[in-house]
Amino acid sequence: MAGVENESGIDPPGIAGQSAVLCELADMIRFVGKPEFYDRASQMLAGALRCKRRLVMRYSAYDKPAFIVNEALNDDGVAFYLAGIYRIDPLHRHVRSSVAPTVVNLRSLAHEIDEKYFLELSKMSIFDEIAVVLPAYGGVTIAFCCERHRVRFEPQDYNLANAFLPLLDALHKLHMDRLFSAARALGRERLTENFGDALLVLDRRGDVAYANEAWSNNTDAANALPQVVRQIADSGPGHLQLDGQQVIHWEQLPPDFSLAPCGHLVILEHRSPGPLATSGDAALEAFCRQKELTPREAEIVRLSFVGLPNAAIAKQLGVSVGTVKNHRWRLYYKLDITTERELFHQFLSTLIAIENSECELEAH
C-alpha cells in the first residue's frame, strides 16, 4: 500500500492513508467466503501497520501449526519451524490456552525460555511481531501475523491492530459461515486447500449436514461416529482418542451458523507434540550436564542462546574475542557440530527428552 509501508515510525498520510485502507477493506470484503480472503485480510492489516512481512497461521487443537499465507519466511525457515521450533513459539502456547479474539505482541508473551526463540526469529529476519488472533470452529485459531525485521512495533501500532479486531473477527466469522454453506451447496470435497482435516457437521438432530472427502474416506472416523453421537447427546463437547495418534473432537456450533444452527462440528486430526512446558533454566542445566560442558562452555551456550555475538560474549566474560572463538570451536568439536543451528537442534532434543521423562513420571 503506497505511502504507508514504512518501519521508520513516520505517521502515514492522513486522508491518502485512510483512503488506501478503506479501498483495501472493500477489496477484502469482496473475498469473504473465498480462498483469497486470508491473503487480502493480511495485506490490509500489514499495510495499516506499515510492514511488508506477513503470515497467516492456522493453529489446530491437536496438530502442529500450518501456514495459510507466508510472505515472511523462506523454505528453510518454514521447515525449521515445523520440525520443532513451533513447540517453543509463544503464540502457539497462547492459542492453546485462550479462545478469545485478541491482539498480542510476540514479545509481551515471552518468558526467559523464549530468548532462544527470538534468536531464531532474528536469523529469519523477524525482529518483532503483532498478531491478530481469531478463533474459528473446531478448536482452530487463525492468527494474522505482521512482522518487522528492523524496529519494534510502537504502542500506537498495537492500538491500531486492536481497532481492527472487531471488524476482522466479524468478517472472519462470516467467512467461515460462507465456506461451510458453499461446501454443502456446491458439493465440495473440502472447504479450501487450507482446511484438509477430516470433518463432519451434524445438525441439532444428529443427522449429517456435511462431510468432506477426508472424513468420508476414513474408516476409523466412520466406525467411531456412533460413539461420538452418543457422547454428544450425553455430555456435549469432548474428544475421543483413536488408535495411533488420531483424535476425534467436537464442539457445538452457534445458533447463527447457517449450515447447521446449534449443530456440532466433528473433526478428526493427527495429534502432534504440543508446546513445551519445561523451564529454560532446567533444560539448559540438563543440556550442559548431559553434554559434559565446562562452566565456561556452558556460559557461552547460555549467552549464545540470548543472541549475543562473540564480541558481546567476550566483553561480558572479560576475555578476548579469540578466547571465545576457541571455546566455541572446542564446544562444537565436543558436540560434533559445525553450526549454531545444530547446537539449537541438540538443545531442543534435550527439551523434548526432559518433557517426555516428566510425562512418564506423572503416568506412574
From TrEMBL:
InterPro entries associated with the record: Sig_transdc_resp-reg_C-effctor (IPR016032), Tscrpt_reg_LuxR_C (IPR000792), WH-like_DNA-bd_sf (IPR036388)
GO BP: regulation of DNA-templated transcription
Source superkingdom: Bacteria
SMART domains: HTH_LUXR
Entry keywords, A to Z: DNA-binding, Transcription, Transcription regulation
Gene Ontology molecular function terms on file: DNA binding
Listed SUPFAM superfamilies: C-terminal effector domain of the bipartite response regulators
UniProt keyword Transcription present: yes
Keyword ATP-binding: no
HTH luxR-type domain: residues covered: 286-351
Designated name of the protein: Helix-turn-helix transcriptional regulator
Organism of provenance: Microbaculum marinisediminis
Source organism phylogeny: Bacteria, Pseudomonadati, Pseudomonadota, Alphaproteobacteria, Hyphomicrobiales
